[in-house]
Amino acid sequence: MGTITLKNSHKRASWIARTLKNFREGIAWLETPAITLVAFAIAWLVNSQDPLTLTSSFPWIILAPLLVGLRYGFAWAAVSTILLVVSGWLNAQWLEIQWRTPVAWFLGTLAVSTIAGEFRDQWQQKLIRFQQVSRYRKARMNEFTRSYQLLKRSHALLEQEVALSGYSLYGAVADISNQLISHSSEQPALNSCATDLMRLLGHYGEIQAGALLHVQNGKVNTKQPLASIGEMPEVKAKDLLIKRTLLKQEASCIKPEPFDQNKALNKTQLLACVPLIDSHDNYHALLAIRLMPFTCLNENHISQLAVLCGHIADLLYMTKLTHEIPHHEPKIRAFHTHLERCWKDAIEYNIQAGLIAIKIGNFGVAPALIDSITIHKRALDQVLTLRARDSEHWIALILMPLSEQDDTHTYLEKFPAFLKKHHKVDMTKAEVNLSHFIVNSDSQNSLEMARFLNNNGYPLSATFTEQIESSNPLQEKGIDSVSLVDGNIRTGT
User: Is 297 exposed, middle or buried (0-12, 13-18, 19+ CB in 10 A)?
Assistant: First the structure.
């Protein structure tokens, strides 16, 4: 686009230059004879016998070709000189005066006027080049200005889009986790933070109207929402999407298809429903979405909301767990809950996580090193300290939820420098051995994960082991889409 505009500017500038040149040439054809003849007439009035001022102390008539040369250049200076000589000859014939061709005068006048014309031509060429360069730079500057304005506008729109809708799934979970931790533990976590939770879900999920409904014993309380956002009317308990979500225990949304709108409205008032169900299949709440941007009503966006709500449910479960069991167990239970969530995210949504095992053989370094690892972990990372079965090593298991493979490799690459910086020892002296595992949806991944955990002293529960052994990553849940055609229900993933 920019190249085409630049070429058009060059063509326009060339056309203007040619037009001006033709106009100047037309004026030159008029002005050269006029200047020459006016000078000759003045000289003739002064001395009709010698209009060329051949006998004068100074040949003033040469100012005419000199002026023409300065104004129009070499060629027109020569024309003016020749025109003077011809006029002198015609005057001699008219007055019947003896005429001698003034060769010396002619050559001298021609030399003076053409030299002036030559200098004029040289400067004119330079001026033309400067004008061409100026026009080119002006065209480039205009193009640059347009591009800059487009880029500025695009950057402003991008900033607005990022500010309004762009978010990191990891950052969203970390933000909501901090929000849950900050609330008082004297009352149930969900009741105390429902309003803030709904606000964060509305921000990250671009929900324009929705509600957080409490679920207990498989029943949804639609009359008294825990929190709502936007204009949210009361939702019926028999709503199609609510029933579908409770039945399937997975997110459901309306599939954009042609249907009878009146019949559809009798079945559901919602666009999507996302359950807050933890890794132990305990229902905490239901996110009912009535309004959201059309561009967000897609499987990828609803999947991210489902992952976000799953992590929120686990955080609610662990908040409750902290007050119900002895203090030495919550760390193991919390780690196990996060591990199950990462495994489900990998199986159902193909979201990777990282597992790192740090074996420490130097018992003098081990306590301080484990404390440093715990202090410097990321917001969602979980650290569990175990004693190896041979009792010769301490093991720090690090779970990195919602992390790509590169994040795990980066951690492993930076760990030796971390050890050297904070404990002044190298890997050999600290007797540190690193191993890692990437949790993903590969068909062999589940059994390999169980083997990795078992080799590093992790106490796998029988239930979780059975789930791992029976898992089939090829049967991903995805998002259940509900289509309403003539009042009938059709489902599809």
Answer: middle
- Could you tell me where the beta strands, DSSP code E, fall in 388-472? 394-400, 432-439
Q: How many CB atoms lie within 10 A of CB 249?
A: 11
Burial of residue 288, with CB atoms counted within 10 A of its CB: 0-12 exposed, 13-18 middle, 19 or more buried: buried
Q: Which two tokens stand for residue 457?
A: 């002293």
Q: Which residues face 383 on adjacent strands? A: 398
How far does the chain reach from its first CA to its final CA, in angstroms? 43
Please report, for residues 172, 178, 230, 252, 351, the alpha-carbon distance to residue 164 in angstroms, rounded to integers and kept in the order given: 13, 21, 16, 24, 24
53: left (phi over 0), alpha (psi -120 to 50) or beta: left
How far is 142 from 5, CA to CA, in rounded Å?
10
Residue 134: how many other CB atoms lie within 10 Å: 11
Contacts of 65 (CB under 8 A, 6+ apart): 36, 77, 78, 80, 81, 84, 109, 110, 112, 113
How is the chain split among helix, strand and coil, in percent rounded to 5? 60, 15, 30
The count of residues in the chain is 493
Return d(Cα 264, Cα 70) in angstroms, integer: 88
- d(CA 208, CA 232) in angstroms, rounded, equals 9
The closest alpha carbon to 312, from 177, 193, 185, 211, belongs to 177
**Dihedral over Cα of 361, 364, 369, 371: its sign:** positive
Encoded amino acid at 350, one letter: N
Q: What is the pLDDT of residue 194?
A: 86
Beta pairing class for 252-254 and 480-485 = parallel
Mean pLDDT by runs of 10 across the 493 residues of the chain is: 47 56 64 79 78 75 80 79 80 74 77 80 85 90 91 81 62 78 60 84 88 87 89 86 87 65 62 90 90 84 89 84 56 83 87 92 89 89 83 87 90 92 89 91 75 82 59 46 37 38
Q: What pLDDT score was predicted for residue 327?
A: 47
Identify which of 216, 263, 271 has the alpha carbon closest to the alpha carbon of residue 242.
271
